[in-house]
Amino acid sequence: MKNYKQLKDLHNRIVVVTGASSGLGEQIAYELARKGAIVVACARRLDRLEVVTRECQKLSGRISVAKQLDVEDPLQIEHLVKNIEDELGPIDVLVNNAGFGLMEDVLNFEMKTAEKMFRVNVLGLMYLSKYTALKMAKRKRGAIINVASVAGKIATPKSAVYSATKFAVLGYSNALRLELKPLGISVLTVNPGPIDTEFFEIADKTGSYLSRVGFLVQQPEDIAQKVVSTIGTSKRELTVPFSFEIAHRFYELFPRIGDYLAGDLFNKK
């Protein structure tokens, strides 16, 4: 079944975006609004979400709703999905974008932070995917987009915990894709490199990482356009820029050289 192709036209489609208060999630929300979607923007910062939803309404000419959500809380997630379906209608697209990272040596990494990172980056995504997919499966239509990272394909020093969460997202998404395909639901994994967003205000204690990898830094608006353009297609993975996909394949073929490049030559953290 390929009912997800119906979603190529996003007019009046209900789309849920997590981590929508800033950065890539915010820009994905705006791009969806430009396509005429009804955007449900979710995050913890309600004040920021209300700014985002007002802009979405201007862009789409349709309603946009702000929903405060802590993705660490499974009950909040379950209630969110139910409330959206009851109050607005069927969720057609879910964008799991919420997440955070921290560049820190493994030996100094606080395990409480590691546990929190897995709850946000992995378990929250899994709960949202499951509860939303249960609704989509009844209609035999839907699209789920999981934002992972290049760090889930190529691990580097000071990214062990973050990379572990994104490796988990990739593995989960690959299996989820196979299970949901017969139900008319597509699953896309997005693997961006460094993006010029607030993400690094938490992730980078030095405050200089983006400047050291300037030639690789991308703008969230550009990635948002590419992500939204995949909805309604069978594309399984989007790695941006594509040079990282080439690097990943090289790493798999020549792991010893890959370790040298990732651990020494290209280590900018």
Question: Quick one: biggest sheet?
Answer: 7 strands, parallel
Structural class: alpha/beta
Task: Give start-end ranges of low-pLDDT stretches.
Answer: none
Distance between the termini: 45 Å
Number of strands: 7
Strand order, largest beta sheet: 3-2-1-4-5-6-7
CATH architecture: 3-Layer(aba) Sandwich
How much is the average pLDDT?
A: 88
CATH superfamily caption: NAD(P)-binding Rossmann-like Domain
> Strand-residue fraction?
5-15%
Name of the top-level CATH class: Alpha Beta
**H and E string:** EHEHEHEHEHEHHHEHH
- Measured as a percent range, the helix fraction is 40-55%
Question: Count the helices. How many?
Answer: 10
Q: Tell me the overall shape.
A: globular
CATH topology, anyone?
Rossmann fold
Backbone CA Rg? 18 Å
Total domains: 1
